[in-house]
Design goal:
2 copies of one chain form a homodimer. By secondary structure, chain A is mainly α. Chain A has helices spanning 21-42, 45-52, 56-63, 66-73, 80-88, 95-106, 110-125, 127-146, 154-175, 185-201.
Chain lengths: 203, 203
């Protein structure tokens, strides 16, 4: 789902060919190493390009900005920018319903669910990954959502929304408690929507 | 915090002495093995006693019922029965506030927090433990809370409350996103209480 996953066809050849499949793998590997070593905030595109033997400008051209490269490197199943544009922005009165519908719908795609649970599991047990997620979530998700909100403590409220989403994934899919695990989207939506609505708007 | 952790002094001696420290360790080890092998619902006190060389009646006398033994064996940091009696039962109009205050207060005890996070981490990565937790949570926590509630789908609503609690622990302590990680109990209580209130009472 990340826009960085399908780079446009290469136009120039300098050093490694950034558009080729094996260069892509080398870049993603270098990115994972750099993110793991320095954390999301301190990782630099320049260092990733250098490690991969790819010119920084070309790296930007084919992988976009740091957040795009991170999403691609961690195979992050959701693009925060897309979430903000398509889910958070828009009619305030129904934002809770949109968030609940989006999240429940997302998990109905097995490959997205699998990838998300893998990330939650690794973050739960590996401090380095937890730290990476923390930086990325704060910088790229919370900040972007918070700026759209017209409430006090928008970051805190955004993170409470995220905490309900993560906990729902844990309870529904990892622990698998019944009846929550088998509840349908239609059953859960009216229970969850007001929670998200209140966190995001205070209503 | 579990009442089963300090057995009364032994009065009889049959087979192993159930009150002695090493018998206690043998019983807890046998309990962990039985729970792991058969899951919470199917594990039997009789089999645990047999494996530990302790008479089933004495096992009951010193460790109480199956749920008590489970709490002791997994060093579960919270006693669901106590939670229901002290937190859920009582004035319906303020139950959300009581749940939020209880949870946030609980985590201010470092040893409880550490143990709880350890359980969440293991459950997140080990299907066997997740399955154990599922059985225990459904049988001993959800059922007991749900019976106190006067709403439709009380089990589902109880599990949504639990999902918010688990997710809060993940976001606040495991991922550690700011400002949530540093928010005080006083800042979080008014944001969380209405969520729990609505899940548990529909208001």
């Amino acid at each position: 789902m990340t826009s960085a996953e399908q780079p446009a066809s290469p136009r120039k050849k300098v050093g490694r060919r950034p558009g080729s499949a094996d260069t892509r793998l080398v870049v993603l590997e270098a990115a994972r190493a750099e993110f793991a070593a320095r954390g999301y905030e301190k990782a630099s595109m320049r260092a990733i390009g250098r490690a991969a033997g790819v010119d920084a400008a070309l790296l930007h051209h084919y992988f976009g900005t740091k957040d795009r490269l991170f999403l691609a490197a961690l195979e992050f199943p959701v693009d925060p920018q897309m979430v903000v544009e398509q889910v958070i922005a828009g009619d305030r009165a129904t934002v809770g319903e949109r968030v609940a519908g989006f999240v429940l719908g997302l998990w109905e795609q097995p490959e997205v669910l699998t990838r998300m649970l893998a990330l939650v599991r690794v973050a739960a047990t590996t401090e380095q990954v937890a730290q990476l997620m923390r930086g990325f979530v704060q910088e790229e998700l919370v900040r972007r959502v918070a700026v759209e909100l017209d409430v006090e403590r928008p970051e805190l409220r955004t993170e409470l929304m995220i905490s309900q989403i993560v906990g729902l994934a844990m309870a529904r899919y990892v622990i698998g408690v019944e009846p929550l695990a088998s509840a349908t989207r239609e059953e859960l939506l009216p229970l969850l929507a007001p929670t998200f609505q209140r966190y995001l708007t205070g209503e």
